[in-house]
Amino acid sequence: MTAESLAASYVAPGADYAATASEAYQAALRVIESVEPRVADATRKELADQRDSLKLIASENYASPAVLLTMGTWFSDKYAEGTVGHRFYAACQNVDTVEALAAEHARELFGAQYAYAQPHSGIDANLVAYWAILAAKVEAPGLADLGAKHVNDLSEADWESLRGKLGNQRLLGMSLDTGGHLTHGFRPNISGKMFHQRQYGTDPQTGLLDYDAVAAAAREFKPLVLVAGYSAYPRRVNFAKMREIADEVGAVLFVDMAHFAGLVAGKVFTGDEDPVPHADIVTTTTHKSLRGPRGGLVLATEEYAPFVDKGCPMVLGGPLSHVMAAKAVALAEARQAEFGVYAQRIADNAKALADGFLKRGATLVTGGTDNHIVLLDVTSFGLTGRQAESALLDSGVVTNRNAVPADANGAWYTSGIRFGTPALTSRGFGADDFDRVAELVVEVLSNTQPEGSSKAKYTIADGVAARVHAAASELLAANPLYPGLQL
Ligand code: PLP
Q1: Mind listing the domains of the chain with CATH numbers?
Q2: Do the annotations mark residue 182 as ligand-binding?
Q3: Structure pTM?
Q4: 179 with 231: CB under 8 angstroms?
Q5: Residues in domain Serine hydroxymethyltransferase-like (predicted)?
Q6: Which residues share a beta bridge with 460?
Q7: Which of 6, 234, 277, 395 supports an S-S bond with 373, CB 3.0-4.6 Å?
C-alpha cells in the first residue's frame, strides 16, 4: 500500500495494532476450536477467501478489527427490550450506555435530531420507519378522533376500523428495475403488501431520475409516503427536489440511504444531496459504505422521534446489544477526519472504474456514475447478467448481477452487473487500480460466449480465467486486507 492509500484507510493501525488484533483472533480461534473445530476452520478460510477475492459487491465492505471484536462479547447475552432508560428488563445499565453512545454518534455524524440504533438490519430499519409514519399519521390522529389515548382503550369495532385505515395507505417508491429496493413497495416484500403502492422509474433515454415524472406520479397518486433512495442507481439524488414534491402532495419524505450513508457521513454528499436536512425519516444499514457491523439505523425529526423510539416492541424484539456496541465504535470511526478521505476515494474510484469501462467501449446505465456504484449493461457482450457474474467469479472477480431498467432478461438472469467501490477502497485501492479492474473485467467478458440459447451457461476462452485471476491476485497482494493480521 502506498502512503496515500494508507492515510485513506482504517487498515493503517501500525504494527502494534496488527499484533494485538492477531493475538486476540488467535486466542479466540483456539477457544472456538476446542468446541467446534469446523467453525474455527471455516472462519480461517473465510478470511483467506476474502483476502484473495476482488470484492466488487456494492453493498459489502470490510469492518475494522475494532468493530469486529466489539461484536464478540457478552453483550450478546443481554435482553434489553424497550429503549434507553426505559427497559422491560432489569440490569440494562451497560446496554443503555452503548445504545446511547451509538445514537449520539449517529446524531452528531449526520446532524440528525434523533437517532435509533436498534434495528437489526436495513429491512428492520425500514419497517420501523414505515410503522412510525403510520403511527404518527394514521393511528395517533385516529385515536384523537375517537377520544382515546391508547389502542387498548378502543372497542373491538373502533380498533377494526383503525386497523383498516392503517393497512390502506399509499406509498410511492423507486421501481426495482431502475434501482429501488425490495422494501420500497415491491409486492413480494411486506412493504408492497402493507401499502397500496406505486412506483416511479427513470427516464428511458438517459436512465436518470426524472423529477417532473416523480412529481406527476405523486400528484396523481397522492401517497402518504414518498420513498427516495436506491440499491442500484449509479447517480446522486437531489433530496431538496424530493422534499418539494412531498410537500406539494402532503407526503412524508422517507429516504433509505442504506447504500450511500458512508458518502453522507464522509461529507461527499452535502447540501441538496444530503438527505438528512430534507427528509422526515432516514434509514440506513451500518455495514455497507458506512463500514460498520451488520445492522440498521433510523434517523428522524423530533416529530417522528417518539414513534420511532417504539420500534421495540412495534416491529422489533430484543435489540442486539453487542451489535449496537459495534455500531457505536464504527460511528466513532466515521466521525474521524480520515473517514472523509475514505468516502471521497470511494466516489473517485467509482469514477475511475466507470471511465475505465467507457474507454474500453462498454455500456453503462446512465453513462457513468457519481456515487459508489457502476452498473454495466452486459448485453453488449452478448451475455446475461447471470453468465457475466459466473464468468467473473471463475476469474476471481466477485460481483453481483443486477437488473437494468426494463430488463429483457428479468430479475433472475438480468442484463447487468453492479459494481461497487467501498470494499476495495477500504483495502487501499486507488484510481489506477480501478482502471486495471475495468481492464480485467472487460477481458473476461469479451472472451466469454453464451452456450447455445441458455441464459446461464457460458464458455470462457482457454487461459483467460487463470490469467485474470493471477492479475487480480497481484492487485490484492499490493493492497492487503487487514495487513499484519495473522491467524
Ligand atoms: N435498503 C436498501 C436500499 C438496501 O440496498 C438494502 C440491502 O441491500 C436494504 C435496505 C436491506 O438491508 P439488510 O440486508 O440489512 O436488511
Answers
A1: 73-334 (3.40.640.10), 336-476 (3.90.1150.10)
A2: yes
A3: 0.96
A4: yes
A5: 33-137, 169-440
A6: 448
A7: 234
